[in-house]
């Protein structure tokens, strides 16, 4: 598999400019130095994050460095977050998931202890084993699926999450569904969102 490294911001357009206009095809040393300079400039253009690993098509986010800090918006092209992609990123406080997202892998956000809130779009069809395990700082989870995702009893999606105090926000008219759904019913505070509130959160 071929991987691309991109900055946490969407720098796809700039990353494609990797040809040194001052170096010929027979000058690999200068070409390599030029490429390294471009990468360095992009990495230093934004504070808080280093590079994130995606697949070639930019449909799968594979890995975020544990040194990442702050907030991150995942590119709209991403459909899957890989196994342990954000695991142990203790400096990450928020991650915006794209509306194109379908799969969040096992342990994807494990031990993101400063992640305070997460919004799961309606497009998500699969949540892996212990996706949010040890996210001890989670205060709110916004779920936009009008039918609760079916979870196995042993998947421990919210292992060591404070489900007594973390608020689970769900679409209007779905509270009874979530109150009886495996894993979701563990939350003591389940609140229905008004439609206008749902739109505001997604935007």
Describe the structure.
- The chain has one domain (3-163): Leucine-rich repeat, LRR (right-handed beta-alpha superhelix), CATH 3.80.10.
- It is built from 4 helices and 12 strands.
- The protein has helices spanning 12-15, 28-43, 175-179, 195-202, and strands at residues 3-7, 51-55, 60-63, 69-73, 80-81, 91-96, 103-104, 117-120, 126-127, 140-143, 167-171, 189-193.
- A 6-stranded mixed β-sheet has the order 1-2-3-5-7-9, with no helix packed on it. Strands 8-10-11-12 form a 4-stranded parallel β-sheet. A two-stranded parallel sheet has the order 4-6.
- A hairpin with a 4-residue loop joins strand 2 (51-55) and strand 3.
- The model is unreliable at 1-48 (pLDDT under 50).
How would you describe the shape? globular
| CATH class (first level) name | Alpha Beta
Total strands: the figure is: 12
Q: How many domains make up the 3D coordinates?
A: 1
| Approximate helicity band | 10-25%
Mean pLDDT reading: 79
Major beta sheet summary = 6 strands, mixed
User: Could you state the order of secondary-structure elements as H and E?
Assistant: EHHEEEEEEEEEEHEH
């Amino acid at each position: 598999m071929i991987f691309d490294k991109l900055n946490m911001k969407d720098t796809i357009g700039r990353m494609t400019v990797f040809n040194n206009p001052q170096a010929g095809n027979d000058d690999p040393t200068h070409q390599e130095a030029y490429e390294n300079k471009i990468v360095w400039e992009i990495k230093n253009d934004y504070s808080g994050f280093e590079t994130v690993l995606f697949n070639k098509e930019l449909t799968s986010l594979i890995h975020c460095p544990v040194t990442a800090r702050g907030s991150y918006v995942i590119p709209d092209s991403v459909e899957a977050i890989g196994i342990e992609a954000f695991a142990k990123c203790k400096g990450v406080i928020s991650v915006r998931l794209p509306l194109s997202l379908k799969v969040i892998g096992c342990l994807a956000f494990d031990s993101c202890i400063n992640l305070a809130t997460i919004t799961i779009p309606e497009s998500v069809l699969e949540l892996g084993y212990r996706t949010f395990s040890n996210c001890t700082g989670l205060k709110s989870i916004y779920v936009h699926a009008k039918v609760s995702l079916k979870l196995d009893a042993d998947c421990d999606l919210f292992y060591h999450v404070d489900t007594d105090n973390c608020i689970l926000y769900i679409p209007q008219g779905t509270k009874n569904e979530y109150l009886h759904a495996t894993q979701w019913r563990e939350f003591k505070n389940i609140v229905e969102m008004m439609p206008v509130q749902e739109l505001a959160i997604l935007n």
